[in-house]
Amino acid sequence: MAKTDKINFSTPSGFPEFLPSEKRLELYLLDTIRRVYESYGFTPIETPAVERLEVLQAKGNQGDNIIYGIDPILPPNRQAERDKAGETGSEARALKFDQTVPLAAYIARHLNELTFPFARYQMDVVFRGERAKDGRFRQFRQCDIDVIARRELSLLYDAQMPAIITEIFEAVNIGDFLIRINNRKILTGFFQSLGIAETQIKTCISIIDNLEKIGETKVKQELEKEGISAENTQKIIDFIKIDGNVDEVLDKLKHLSQNLPTAEQFSLGVTELETVITGVRNLGVPDKRFCIDLSIARGLNYYTGTVYETTLIGHEALGSICSGGRYEELVGMFIGEKMPGVGISIGLTRLISRLLKAGILKILPATPAQVVVVNMQEDLMPTYLKVSQQLRQAGINVITNFEKRPLGKQFQAADKQGIRFCVIIGADEAAAQKSSLKDLQTGEQIEVALADLAQEVKRRLEL
C-alpha cells in the first residue's frame, strides 16, 4: 500500500462500539437481566447469527429492506465457483434481525430434544439494514425470553412477564416505570363489533399502535384512508382512550361486552386480560407498576393475545423500554403444529444509549480493578506479586504495576481509571511486613499490616 493511501477506519454507521466503561455497564446490565431470567427457570440457548433467508422471511410481516443478506466475497479464481453454486433460493443466507424467528426454527430443529413448556432466554446481537439514527442501530443486542408450549400454554406465563420486567428495572434502579398491558383479542373483537372487515382489522390495529408517534388527528386520517367511516373512527378513538385504574377499566370492558353485537372475541379477550391481571397481582407486582392501556397493540401481526409495553415515567419520549406479547402460530409455522408462546424483549443497546443520554444511567469505571499495587522499586516485585495474589484470593480485583514510574503518575493513572485504593510497599514496609494504603477518593493514607491488608480493603469497599 502506498503511503498516500488512506484507510477509512471509522466505525460503519449504525454499528456501535463501546469504550471499556460503556462495555462494563452493558455487562452489569446483562448480568442483572440474566439473574432475573434464571430465577424464573429460563435456560440459555444460542442460535446462529446467520439463518437461511427463507426462514427469516417466513414470518411475512417484516419488510425485506431490514434484512442484511450474506454475499461471500471470493477471489477472482473462485468467482466461477460461487456463480455455479448460486446463493439463491434455499441456499441464500442472511443475518438474523430478531431472536423470535430463529427461535421458531431452533425449536423445529430440536423438537424431540426439548422439554415443553420450553422457557429460554437469549441475549445476542441482531442486525437490521434500516437507516441508522439517534437511538436506532443496525447492530444491537436484544435480551429475550419466551415460553413455548405444544397445543396449550397457561395464561399465568403471560402474568409472569410483568413480574420479570418489574424485578429487572427495579434492580437496575432507573426510576419509575409503567408496564402497559392489553389484549389483541379485545381490539379485534371491538373492530368486529363495528362491522369492520377482517381484511382491514390488522391494518387498523397497526394504525392504532402508532397513536403516540403520530397523534390522534393523524390516526383518524389514516383510519379514514382505510375506508373506516368517520363515525366508526370516532368510536375507535373513544374506545382506546378508556382510562382509569385497572379495576375500573376491567369493569368498563365487562359492561361493554354485554352490549356489543358479535362480542365473543371481545369477551374472550377481556376474560384473558382479567386472568393475567389477577396473576400479576398474585406475583406481588405493585399496582403502581402496571395499567391497562387499550391503545397498546404491538404492530407485529403475529401477536394474538396479551401484549406489553413498558415506559419510563417522565421520559415517555424514550418509547418502550421492554415489550412483547403472546403469539399462537409463529413457532408452529415450520412444523404445522399449534405451538403457542409468550415473550418479551429488551433492546439493550438502544436502552443503554437513550438512558445514558438522558442521564438516567451512568457509565462505570473503565476497569473492574479496585486496587493498584504500585511499583516503588524493581527488586520488590516478588513481594508485589505475592501481595497481589493474596488480595485476589480474597475476592479483590487488583492491577499490579510492572513498570516503575514516579509515584504521583501511578496515582494519577489509577484515579483516571476509577480505581480507589493504592497499596504502597517500599523497602522499609517490606521488611516490617507492612504497607501504606492510600484512598484516592478521600486522600487518606494509613499503615496496614500485610496480613490484615485484604480485610481492611474489603471493609473500606463496603463503606
Fold topology:
Blueprint: H1 20-39, E1 43-44, E2 50-52, H2 53-56, E3 69-70, H3 76-85, E4 93-95, H4 100-109, E5 118-127, E6 139-148, H5 156-171, E7 177-183, H6 184-193, H7 198-209, H8 211-225, H9 230-240, H10 246-257, H11 264-282, E8 290-292, E9 303-312, E10 322-327, E11 341-347, H12 348-357, E12 371-373, H13 381-393, E13 398-400, H14 407-416, E14 421-424, H15 427-431, E15 434-439, E16 445-449, H16 453-461
Parallel strand pairs: 1-5, 7-8, 12-13, 12-14
Antiparallel strand pairs: 2-4, 3-4, 5-6, 6-11, 7-9, 9-10, 10-11, 14-15, 15-16
Textual characterization of the structure:
- The chain is of the alpha+beta class.
- It is 40% helix and 18% strand.
- The chain contains 16 helices and 16 strands.
- It has an eight-stranded mixed beta sheet with strand order 1-5-6-11-10-9-7-8.
- The protein starts with 19 loop residues before the first helix and ends with a helix.
Helix/strand/pairing class, anyone? alpha+beta
Task: Report low-confidence residues grouped into runs of 5 or more.
Answer: none
- Report how far the terminal alpha carbons are from each other: 57 Å
What is the strand tally? 16
The major beta sheet can be summarized as: 8 strands, mixed
Residue fraction in strands: 15-25%
Number of helices: 16
What would the principal axes of the Cα set say about the shape?
elongated
Whole-number average pLDDT? 91
Largest sheet strand order: 1-5-6-11-10-9-7-8
Helix content: 40-55%
Q: Rg to the nearest angstrom?
A: 28 Å
